[in-house]
Amino acid sequence: MSKVPRRRARLLIALATAGVLLVTGCTGTSTQVDSSLYDSLPDEGGTPVDGGTVTIAMTPGLTPNYIYPYPPSAVGGTTIGYDLMWRALYRTSLEGEPFDAAASLAEAPTFSEDGLTATIAMKDYTWSNGKPVTAHDVVFSFDLLKAAIAESPANWSFYTPGQFPDGVTATADADDTLTLKFETAYNPSYLVSLLQLLYVMPSADWSIAETDGPILDYTQPANAAAIYAYLTAQSSDPSTFATNPLWQVVNGPYQLAAFESTTGSFSLTPNPEYSGPGDARIERVDFKAFTSAAAVYNQYEAGTLTVGRLDASYASKIDELRKKGYNVYGAPAPARFDGLVLNFENTVDNFDKVIGQLYVRQALQHLIDQPGYIKSRGIHSGTASENYSTGGLNSPYPPEFGDEATYPFDPKAAEKLLTDHGWEVDPEGGTVCVRPGTGEDECGEGIPDGQKISFTIASANEPAYVGARDLAFASQLKKLGIDAKIVTKSLNYMYANYGNSYAPATTNEWSMQDFGPFIQTAYPTSNGSFNTGGGFNLGSYSNAEADELMNASTLGSDPDALSAEVTMLSKDLPVLFFPTPDTLIVWKDTLSGPPSTFRSMLKFSYSPEQWYFTEKQ
Question: Is the Cβ–Cβ distance between 578 and 384 less than 8 Å?
């Protein structure tokens, strides 16, 4: 067995009871079980048998509705196939490397001494129609990304005005040589993380603005805009995804064979021209849509699923799943943190003024009982770890306070912060501001006399722990006279409608939102998420010091800059931190492959082209 290093001190494994929420702070009673139930990956083994269908459960409530790799923000798109059809220039790795060298389309970049030029050698990959994947395809993809951003900066979640791809020029010096020139030097690790998000598309086949139209010069911005408009229009009709010849030209290991537009389920078959790692022994890969964790578990019970995730509410079923012929592996996903996103622009009940006060955010964080949530049978059942930073667990860029809680669960400390700043705490009648003003012992700028603290929390309907932890938090708030109304929404709805950077019309509909995890790249800067004007700055957090630190971590070369960024943000609380859940991966024990390909599913990265069955299906 391959043992996986992990922080164990805060990990408690407990039997889970689905749907039960036990709250003190929210500790509950629990029966601990051995963490070895799921913290080891099985070794690769068995004799490969060609053929068979792998059936993968998608995240409940999150189904694809788009196929073009860069969906416009207006459609709230979730794309098909992850990166199985179109590979990014570099593929992410969970093995401690900057990227997965074997599965990437290019060699590592080499930089000029001044950092203003990067030269990248392309590998020998082929499109599904037999044409080579070239540096021209990368330039095409880069120019279309610029066209998407020119239409709306919200069209790329990782965009910040004035940063990549602004001030960057991409050219193909030869079919196998890509050159990037920068007006400002980037931190090399950060640049590679951005290029892991640059999906490479076929310039020879997609450089058109109408069906069967002429090939256009995509380096001309007007042509790139027309091409982008055409491709996004073609992607607007899900019923044609599997039949439109555009989408059959892929560089990844799979092509789309079928798509159910009513459910979002889809099927992939091997791309015979794929030249990356893996023998593509699997005949077909079916991704199935589900509406609940219970529905997923029922399919495990029936034995109809090959691969998927296990909700923490079913952690007590791990032994039963093993007896039914499943492997189970779990760990916190690298560069992940779970946070309750705060909306600094919601003006309902002066929420923007209230949440803009750091002492209020500190008080609210003191009301989140991370140890209790972890133990609670109704939330994590032991399958989570405490985390208080944007860098996530076991990060190579830790905050200066390490893994200690900056604002540990302490309701008395929360109450004192409020009373020290002019609030009269009344659990029955509601906590109110009685000393308005901007003095050190007053409520703060824009908060009037008699102001109460009330707000709405938008809570994702799946996974189950999201709603459970939000309820536990609201219960603790009520004890301090703070009124929080929870509104449950689907993940698809939240992704489409709750983000000030791309859906400003709904800014006042949510004060906080909990959609689950923030999944970051191997270089876990929050640039894009918490910098002023960031494309994924959902709650409009803005802090000049934070912007300066994020600029230093992304544009500078100081190895300690990212830790400084993580430290400052984690103390300033652009989000309220929840425990980081372990991601529990389930797959049939008759399915094998390199252990790294199963570990990579912690970050939703699938590699079925490297899997095989050990028994005939």
Answer: no
Q: Which regions of 91-207 does DSSP assign to beta strands (E)?
A: 110-111, 117-121, 168-174, 177-182
Q: How far apart are CA 138 and CA 146, in angstroms?
A: 12
In angstroms, the CA 233 to CA 238 distance is: 11
Distance in angstroms (rounded) separating the CA atoms of residues 272 and 275: 8
Q: What CA dihedral angle connects 69, 180, 335 and 593, to 10 degrees?
A: 70
Decide the pairing of beta strands 454-460 and 512-514: parallel
What b-and-e string marks burial along 52-81, b requiring 16 or more CB atoms within 10 Å of the CB?
bebbbbbbbbbbbbbbbbbbbbeebbbbbb
Count CA within 13 A, CB hemisphere, residue 1: 12
The residues, ordered by sequence, that sit 6+ positions from 457 with a Cβ below 8 Å of its Cβ are 340, 470, 473, 474, 484, 485, 486, 487, 510, 511, 512, 513, 514
What phi, psi does 378 have (nearest 5°)?
A: -90, -5
CB 361 within 8 A of CB 355: yes
Q: Which residues of the chain have pLDDT under 70?
A: 1-35, 74-77, 82
> Which residue, chain included where needed, has tokens 């509406």?
291
| Cα distance between residue 557 and residue 197, in whole Å | 21
Query: According to the model, what pLDDT value does residue 62 have?
Result: 80
The whole-angstrom separation of Cα 34 and Cα 8 is 12
d(C-alpha 59, C-alpha 489), whole Å:
15
> What distance in Å separates the CA atoms of residue 69 and residue 473, rounded to the nearest whole number?
37
* CA dist list (Å): 297 to 266, 308, 333: 20, 9, 21
Residue 220 DSSP one-character state = S
List, in sequence order, the alpha helices (H) in 253-396.
Answer: 293-302, 318-323, 351-355, 358-365, 370-375
Cβ neighbours for 493, distance < 8 A, ≥ 6 positions apart: none
Residue labelled with tokens 């610029």: 146
**Which runs of E-coded beta strand occur in 8-93?**
40-41, 53-57
Please, what sign has the CA dihedral across residues 468, 428, 575, 61? positive
Query: Rounded to whole angstroms, what are the CA distances from 180 to 123, 186, 191?
Result: 17, 11, 11
- The vertex-458 CA angle with 488 and 478, nearest 5°, equals 95
Number of H helices, E strands in the chain: 15, 24
Dist. CA 364–CA 418, nearest whole Å: 10
Between CA 519 and CA 425 the distance in angstroms is 37
Tell me how far apart the alpha carbons of residues 514 and 470 are, in angstroms, rounded to a whole number.
8
Residue owning tokens 């027309």: 226
Candidates 427, 603, 428; CA nearest to 517 is 603
Q: Cα(572)–Cα(566) distance, rounded to whole angstroms?
A: 10
